[in-house]
Each structure stands twice: as C-alpha cells, then as structure tokens.
Amino acid sequence: MRPSAERSSQLRWRQVLLSFLLSLFRGALPDQIRYSVPEELAKNSVVGNLAKDLGLSVRDLPARKLRVSAEKEYFTVNPESGDLLVSDRIDREQICGMKPLCILDFDTVAENPLNIFRVAVTVQDINDNIPLFKQRKIDLKIGESTKPGRTFPLDPALDLDAGSNSLQRYHLSDNEYFDLAEKQAPDGRKYPELILKHSLDREEQNFHQLVLTAVDGGDPPQSGTTQIQIQVIDANDNPPVFSQDVYRVSLQEGVPRGFSVLRVTATDQDEGVNAEVTYSFHNVDEQVEQFFTLDKRTGEITTKNDFDFEIASSYTLGIEAKDPGELAAHCSIQVEILDENDCAPEVIVTSVFTPLPEDSPPGTVIALIKTRDRDSGENGDVYCRVLGKTEFLLKSYSKDYYKLVTDRALDREEIPEYNVTILATDRGKPPLSSSTTITLHITDVNDNAELQFYLVVALALISVLFLLAVILAVALRLRSSSSPASWSCFQPGLSSKPGPGVLPNYSEGTLPYSYNLCVASQSAKTEFNFLNVTPEVTPPQDLLCEDACWVPSTNHGDGDGPLASDTILKVSFNLINLFAL
After folding, report:
1. Same domain, 59 and 156
2. Contact 228, 140 (CB under 8 A)
3. 461, 541: one domain
4. Are 567 and 521 in contact (CB under 8 A)?
5. Does some domain include residue 153?
6. 493 in a domain, yes or no?
7. Distance CA 576, CA 172 (A)
8. Do 206 and 217 belong together in one domain?
9. pLDDT > 60? residue 565
10. 201 within a domain of the structure (yes/no)
11. Contact 123, 92 (CB under 8 A)
12. Does position 440 have pLDDT exceeding 60, yes or no?
C-alpha cells in the first residue's frame, strides 16, 4: 500500500498547488465575463472569444473541453477557436418580458483541471415591435355642458419592446377643443387621457374626430394609431360621478375565489331612469378579466381565479360607469398582490461529472447545482445541503449556485456507487423544501497492487504444497499396492522379511552395513573377500531382494558367467564387522 499512499499524497499536493494558482489567476479575472448582444442574432453568430477572455490557450482547448453549463443553452463554445456562439433563438420579449434589463447568466466549465467561470450576456432590445392599440376606433359621448378640464381616459397602446425602443409618447391630431395628457401606471405602462380645453356647442358641432398616435423610441421610431370619435350630446343630461378617481387595494396571494375586493359607486344627478348607472371594465387587458369579475349593477368586484404573485404582483382595473344617456365616468383601481410562501424551491442540476475516479482528491467538483424560488423576500431565500453523512458536501460559489465536491477519499471496493440527495429549503414560515438525487458511479484505479502481489505469492505456495501432498499421496499409494520385497532394498537391516538371520547385536559391538559394489567385466578375476554367509543366516535371495540374476557366481575363471559380459555388476551385501569392546 506504500505506492498508493505516495500517489494520494502527490495528488493532494497537486490539488493544493492548483487551488493556490487558481486563486492567483482568478484574482486577475473579473468576477464575471460580460458580453452584450442584440436579440434575434443568427445561429452560430460570434458573441466573443471566451477562451481568450478566460486566459486559456487555444492549444489547450481540446484537453480543457471548454463548454457551457446552463439550464437552457442559448450559447455554445467552439472547441477549436474558443469562440462563444449563439446556438438558439434569443427573443428578448419571450425571455425577459417587460423587464428593463435582460441578462442571461450561465456557467462555463473547463476540465483538466476543472475550473468554473461565470458568464453574463446582456440581451439588447431591437425595435422589432410596433405600438398597437387594442381597438382601431374609440367612441366617446360628451355632454355639451361638460366643464373644461374634464379628463377622459383612453385605451393605451401596447409595445412589447423595452428600454428606449418601448412606447415613449402619445400624440393627438391638431384640434381646437381637446388636449392630451399622459399618466403612468404602477407597472410602468403609459396611459393617455383626453382633456377638454373649451366648452362644446352641440348646435355648432355635434361630432369630432381625432387621431391618437403612439410612438416608440426606436431609430427610426415606429408608431401605431387609432381614431377617436366624439359625439356631443344635449346639455340636459348629467354624467355619473365616482366618489374617487383612484382606488388602492391590497390582497393576499392566497385569497379564495369569490372574495370581495371592493365596491365602487358612481352617482348621477339625473332623475328616474336616467339616474341608473351600469358598471363595466374599461381599458383592461385579458389578464384582468381572468382574475376579476364586476357586477354591472352594484359595482362590486370579486376574485375569479387564484392569484400567483410570481406571475403578476399588481393589477390595474379601469372601471366605467355609464348612464342610459351614454354619458360615462371613469376611475381606476390599483390592486397589489402580497406574496405568500406558496412555491417550493427548485433544485436544478446543470452539470454532473461522472464517472468519478476513486483516487479523486478531496475538493474535486462533481456537479454544478442551481436553486430557484419564485417567491420573494425571505420566502424566496434558499439554502442547500446534502442529506445524510456522506463523502460529499456543497459549496456556494455564487448567489443561488452551488458545486458538489468530495469531502474525503473514496474507495470503489467499499462503495462503487453513491446516491447523493440535495435538499433545498426556503426561509418562509412555514418553510418549503424540495430535493433531487444525483447518482455517482465510482471508477476503479489500481490501488491494491501490493495486496495482489501477496495474494499471488500465497496462491503459489498453496499450489506447491498441494502438489507435494499429491506426490506424497501417490508414493504412499504405490507403496501400499507394490510387493513388500520391492521396498525392502530401501530399508536398513539385513532383510525386509523376518527370518532366522543374523540380527544386529549392539551390545556385542556388531553394526550392519550396506554396500553397493560395481564390478566391470575386465575385473572378473579380481579377488574379493566376502563374508561367508550360510543359508541358515540369510538366503542370498533375501540379500539381493529376491533377484536370482544378481546371485554371484563361484566360477571365477569362466568367462561365460555374468561377470564376463560387458555389463556392470551391482552387488548389494551386508558386512558385519566385529569391534573389540
């Protein structure tokens, strides 16, 4: 395990050195790389050279694998040049709506070593929308007794562009009796109002036609128009009058349907049937009519649908009161929606780096995580943590952005796969939470080389011992199955069979000896002195292991005997020496 420990130590030192160098490198970089592009750029348009702005060498790009990590990828990185390219349609109105500032934030990831960089792209509005009125014609009835200075609200124009390209002003065609004023609603939209400058005379002119123009701030500017048709009616009629020009109401986000918001009242100085007033919505968009209802006789406004602060935090309701003579009065109601903690936070995994080598040092980035809560204030303040006691932890590197890193060493032999659960909780009362699980696969590295060596040695020893045991068993088997005489040559003593032979007498100083004698054919006449052994002592066959061909011949001169052949005679005999005590 020594090389493995040294390898782990080297990896830790590299990680420390890398962190130090990155801290120096990041100190030279801004917190975010910022770009600015117009909306509706063509696909593959170049935003900027991201690699150069990050200080990365183009030669290193194939190994660094620079890429974009985002929930929705509007951009991509050219792997060869490092250019940041447009990969999808960028419609500012669809992405950011009426927000004055539209910014796309995302991460860029570089590997080997792993670095995470924040990028912010500001989407500039182009003047691709013109101001439009809901109605091409506006009808008004004004009594000739109406005093100058009276205002008449008009339908506003809608321009989806933002900033300087949005609706900037209204223009009224030249006339003698009317002027134009502008008012701004809490949502930022501008509303035109018609102002009576001089008293009207029905006998002189009972009909007036004007043109209202809405102009944006584009270059060149774009505009939209609508016609205003004004009918002057008899002075005997009196228009209704509201008790207030503007009403303000606050509603909790979770109020039930049918909840009474407000009751507006308008009075008419006429008598009888001419004093009856009916109420209706005036200059409101479809969204208002989806959430509110108005009783045309009583003027009571009730909720029609469930509110969602995250979709709309305020509404402007225009109310018109009209008598049978078609004379009308107008007021507006500003409804503010109060946020409640009704949205659980979301956990969005933008990147996962798996499989993960088991020798990854502590602090290795595994995943990039983003949280989102559509609530506001503390209800939308989210914090994240890893459930349970694991080898991983979360580190925040930007608002609502986290990275999942290793906290200690991993061991694939112990745990080959991890299911890491990330829990996000807001600070609402009561708090809401949600979670997601990331599955991480651990890859093996050769960190058990010494252990494998010892296992091989142990296996070899066991194999040798087993082989020896088999050989011994075979030998014992052969001995038990062979004749006893064939094994007697390997035993000490005169004979392998009990008999009346000469037994060794150790008390008398007799010792048994066993000799092997080799005699060549040329030495057949050499004299040998053998111990005279009588048959009563030990038969020759017993001395020579019952092999009759090895019994020595008494014919010393005859060349026909066994000693005359070109063979080597092997003789085994026992010699007894007597030692004097």
Report:
1. no
2. yes
3. no
4. yes
5. yes
6. no
7. 152
8. yes
9. no
10. yes
11. yes
12. yes
Q: What is the DSSP string of 527-572?
A: --------TTT--HHHHTTT-GGGSPPS-SS-TTSGGGSSS-EEEE
Question: Which CATH number covers residue 89?
Answer: 2.60.40.60
Q: Is the same domain home to 533 and 414?
A: no
pLDDT score of 394 more than 90: yes
Tokens found for residue 376: 């506001």
> Helix, strand, coil proportions of the chain in percent (round to 5)?
20, 35, 45
pLDDT tens digits for 499-515? Answer: 444 555 544 555 555 54
Q: Which of 431, 447, 463 is the last residue of a domain?
A: 447
In percent, how much of the chain has pLDDT > 90?
41
Average pLDDT over residues 364-368: 89
Q: For the segment 284-327, what is each residue's pLDDT rounded down to a tens digit?
A: 877 888 999 999 999 999 999 999 888 888 898 999 998 887 78
Question: Which amino acid, one-letter code, is at 96?
Answer: C
pLDDT band at 236 (very low <50, low <70, confident <90, very high): low
Label residue 363 left, alpha or beta by phi (over 0 means left) and psi (-120 to 50 means alpha): left
DSSP string, 406-468: E-S---TTT-SEEEEEEEEEE-SSS--EEEEEEEEEEEP----HHHHHHHHHHHHHHHHHHHH
Q: Do 430 and 572 fall within a single domain?
A: no
pLDDT of 23 above 90: no
Q: Quick one: 164 and 283 in the same domain?
A: yes
186 in helix, strand or coil?
Answer: coil
Quickly tell me which residue has 């005489």 as its tokens. 485
Residue 172 has pLDDT above 90, yes or no: yes
| Residue 247 and residue 199 share a domain | yes
State if pTM tops 0.70: no
Domain termination residue (choose one: 447, 465, 489): 447
Backbone angles phi, psi at 346, to 5 degrees: -110, 145
- Ramachandran region of residue 3, left (φ > 0), alpha (ψ -120 to 50) or beta? alpha
* For range 59-81, the mean pLDDT: 92
Whether 305 and 275 map to the same domain: the answer is yes
**Distance of alpha carbon 36 from alpha carbon 92, whole angstroms:** 13
Say how far apart CA 392 and CA 360 lie, in whole Å: 12
For residue 580, what pLDDT is reported?
38
Q: Is residue 391 exposed (0-12), middle (13-18) or buried (19+ Cβ within 10 Å)?
A: middle
Residues 6+ away with beta carbon under 8 Å from 366: 352, 353, 354, 356, 392, 403, 404, 405, 406, 420, 438, 440
Residue ranges making up the domain that contains 41: 31-126
Place of tokens 């088997």: 477
Q: How many domains does the chain divide into?
A: 5
Listing DSSP states for 348-400 in one string gives EEEEE--SEETTPPTT-EEEEEEEE--S-GGGG-EEEEE-SS-SEEEEEEETT
Average pLDDT over residues 517-534: 48
Give a three-class secondary structure readout of 52-105. HHHCCCHHHHHHHCCEEECCCCCEEECCCCCEEEECCCCCHHHHHCCCCCCEEE
On whether residue 306 sits in a domain, the answer given is yes
Nearest-CA neighbor of 548 among 556, 540, 558? 540
